[in-house]
Amino acid sequence: MLKQIIGATLLLALPAAAQTAQVSVTVDTSKPGAEIDRHIYGQFAEHLGHGIYEGIWVGENSKIPNIHGYRKDVVEALKKIHVPVVRWPGGCFGDLYDWRDGIGPRAKRPVRINIHWGGVTEDNSFGTHEFMNFAELIGADAYVSLNVGSSTPYAQSQWLEYMTSDSKSSLANERRKNGRDKPWTVKFVGIGNETWGCGGNMRADYAADINRRYATFANTPREMGTLKIASGSHDDNFDFAETMMKDGGKFDGMSVHYYTVPRVFKDKGPALGFPEAEWASTLNHALHIGEIVSKTAAIMDKYDPDKKIGMYVDEWGTWYDPTTGSTPGFLVQQNSLRDAEVAALSLNIFQRHSDRVKGANIAQMINVLQAMIMTDGAKMVLTPTYHVFDLYQVFMGATPYPAGVSGPDYAKGVPMVDVSAARGRDGKLYLALVNTDPSKPAHVVTNLTGAAKGQILTGPAMDSHNSFAAPGAIRPVAFSGTTDNGKLAVDLPAKSVAVLKVE
Ligand code: AHR
Predict the structure, then answer these.
(1) CATH for 38-396, among 3.40.50.280, 3.40.50.2000, 3.20.20.80, 3.30.450.20?
(2) Distance CA 482, CA 500 (A)
(3) Is 223 a catalytic residue?
(4) Closest CA to 45 of 238, 317, 396, 347
(5) Which one of 46, 161, 242, 315 is the catalytic residue?
(6) Which CATH architecture is the domain 17-31+402-502 placed in?
(7) For labelling, which of 142, 168, 344, 502 has a CA lying 20 to 30 Å from the CA of 361?
(8) Has 194 been annotated as catalytic?
């Protein structure tokens, strides 16, 4: 009996060691892949809820510290992570957007109804000048999504001329009169958004024809090198991608949209306080984007074997039930360690597909869906997702290597450890490691030698998060590798994301 009690006590005392999973990782540095395009770490900012208003824009007269109307705290946070591209103004909002509503003296701009997002009034105080100047302020490329759902090719062509012409045309002069002398650079132009849904409920053939027509007139000065992104497929519906590639005319990129929900779209599940089964299903659903990217890439390979056309996952992220008490239609949800894992797993997938995926925009930048940042009045909080993007900056423009993982699955379709490896622009080798198991640590032994130092993001609970009361509850902390038989090893805690530099 005594022996049994001692045995049981020992078991309780040694659970971590006993349960540590053994994982091996093999990085093949002899097979460098295509450069990881920095635009895969992009963001999406739509006129939705408090994404733009209060999130980015408070106006020059606000008591909240601002730079010409843009929140100072937000601008600084975004600059820190070197946001490469921002997509605007929608989303579904863009499919009803009249660019003329958002220029000229703010007090004279028309007030419209934002029919897609809560039916609230939109006073257009954030328009073309405010967006383009914001992108410049944070050092990001502008991705302007044109309205092909309800506007004309002529109107969209005029918008582009207004923004980008250096001539003495009436539109360029109107821009000057409105306060901007030099043209802005529009790096990306979206030929519509979700043509299969809120962008017009089109059929695939019609969408391909619409792309041909609108793309013909969506022009900027040649030297600007603007890339035209056609609206492609979503989820597992590949017909729009196939038809667009086959019949869509000329374009430089094609979009893919994919949202991760824990359950099903009509009953998504809460952002916090979820059971472990929903941690597992969320990660499983997040990883499904890998299959979607692979299948879309296979379609693209058929029509574009030289990979001249990029895949742009220009909307992705988690989508949960809205926070209780928030305005319906504002898509407010908390962001926890689970979101950090989704972000890291998704970015690892995009990095692995660097030959085809040339851009991605997380939905969305501030206060909406899988937000990078949340604000409440003068307060601001950086989410776990923001911290992942911060850690992953070393992969911008890096050269990826194939990395094989041998180890257990945490759940069905969810390997316990996920790895991405790449040589950064500084010549150093970087590893991103994700432990998807919420309770088991992993002892990861690599085929590499040397020491590794970096940072790790983890927390006590699956739904650990930052709140306005405790904004620093989850943040990256210093973390180092170790050695095992002369090889670089990493003791990866449960539910964690680590990025390490190998010296
Ligand atoms: O990001 C929210 C919405 O999701 C976008 O407006 C739309 O494009 C997508 O369906």
Answers:
(1) 3.20.20.80
(2) 11
(3) no
(4) 317
(5) 315
(6) Sandwich (2.60)
(7) 502
(8) yes
